[in-house]
Amino acid sequence: MPDLRILPARWAALADRIDAGTPAGRDRSVDALRAFAILGVVLGHWLVTALTTADGGLSTTSPLVHMPWLAPVSWVFQTLAVFFLVGGHVAARSYASARARGTTYREWVGRRLGRLFRPVAAVLTLWAVATAGMLLGGSAPETVRTLLKLALSPLWFLVVFAVLTAATPLVARLHPLWPLAVVLHVDLARFGFGAPEWTGWVNVAAGWLVPYTLGAAWSRGAFAGRRAALGLLVGGGAATAALVLWCGYPASMVGVPGAAVSNLNPPTLAAVAFGLAQCGLALLLREPLARAMRRPRAWAAVALANLSAMTIFLWHQTAMMAVTATGLLAGADLPGLHTVPDGPGWIPARLLWLPVFALALLVCWAAFRAYERPRHRNGGRTEAARARPATAREITHA
User: Fold this and answer.
1) Cα–Cα distance measured from residue 117 to residue 368, given in angstroms and rounded to the nearest whole number
2) Which band of pLDDT confidence, cut at 50, 70 and 90, is reported for residue 374?
3) pLDDT at 375
4) What is the pLDDT, as a whole number, of residue 373?
């Protein structure tokens, strides 16, 4: 049995190597914001998504349906705007650097999108096999549909993010007020003049383009001072409060099953305003985060999370479902796992399952993280993958 006492020493040594190998000019606060954004999405899904056996098969519900007073929880864990902010910042800066080096757009976008879509193949393959196995094994079609929808739901985000990344040369200098105006007019048409519901899907692009273009502006030095970021935080927060209190928008910033209106699918003006507030807060936290990231162990944890950001994002729902399905072998509904989230007692029970979900996600990460690593054209691993203390070389391309 391995001596567990040596693990802290090994982690400290690895953290020191990563810290020493990171370029001095790298803005570590950017990586910290991206890691926190992914963590928020993962924890949010684990907390507000419940698979229950109340109807005989597995079906999806949410504690927000039964306990709407939990809506403020969604304000903490709905962090996609921060991810798009960081994405716009990194993509705009990367494209400007690529142009300066003489790299073509095709080469640049191929590398950026390859990092996004390589891990998707593994997810689609596994779930294609799992779906066939469940149907052949006699599972109820509704149960299979529920599981498949949860497993593949992260892909919508990836598609939107990929489209905006590919469009970076066109949108990098677009003022965020333009897509914000589109969101405003689409909502006026939907909720004020009875326009068809499908018009709201215009906001899938326009809504996430707002924080993406903010990130591009950040790459050009637009938020060098604190005043603009503070204005985003205060203005976005005030607008969100006004829209929820007086304009009838839902308080929850995530979708609630059965609700007439969702702030997220598609994004509404309230969700975009809330995203502006989040972006303002994120920009204000840059300096404290940069100071925190000077500690090698903190930086190593963030750097390694960034190397596997897409793997974590794509597999976190599968990890939760694997634990839920395994729990069915107990022969009884387990509190916080299979039970309906209809009372406060469900909350501590659910919190106890989070480490189990994390352990299942760790297994998925170990099995599928290789799909996120860049490869040479000859199919071999990169130099950083072959020489394992060179982790920081991969980080610089994340």
Assistant:
1) 13
2) low
3) 59
4) 72
Place of tokens 């929880």: 73
Rounded to the nearest 10 degrees, how much is the dihedral formed by the CA atoms of 67, 269, 203, 34? -70
Measured on CA atoms in the order 204, 398, 151, 137, is the torsion positive or negative?
positive
d(CA 167, CA 208): 13
Burial of 211 (0-12, 13-18, 19+ CB in 10 A): buried
* DSSP state letter for 160: H
**pLDDT, averaged across the chain:** 89
- Listed as own residue / partner, the contacts of 348-356 with beta carbons closer than 8 Å and 24 or more positions apart are 350/46, 350/47, 350/50, 350/63, 353/46, 353/323, 354/43, 354/46, 354/47, 356/323
**pLDDT tens digit string along 7-25?**
788 888 889 899 998 888 8
User: Residue 82: exposed, middle, or buried by beta-carbon count in 10 A (0-12, 13-18, 19+)?
Assistant: buried
The enclosing H or E element of 51 equals strand 50-52
CA atoms within 13 A on the CB side of 71: 14
pLDDT for position 1: 47
Backbone angles phi, psi at 61, to 5 degrees: -145, -175
CA R_g for the chain: 22
Describe the chain by its helix, strand, coil percentages, rounded to 5: 75, 5, 25
Q: Two tokens at 282? A: 């994120």
First to last CA, the chain: 36
- pLDDT tens readout for residues 178-223: 999 999 999 999 999 999 999 999 999 999 999 999 999 999 999 9
Other Cβ atoms within 10 Å of 388 Cβ, number: 9
* Inter-CA distances, 101 with 108, 242, 396, 397, Å: 11, 47, 16, 15
Report residue 94 as tokens: 């990367």
pLDDT score recorded for residue 5:
64
Burial of 158 (0-12, 13-18, 19+ CB in 10 A): middle
This prediction's pTM: 0.91
pLDDT tops 90 at residue 344: yes
One DSSP character per residue, 310-328 reads: HHHHHHHHHHHHHHHHHHG
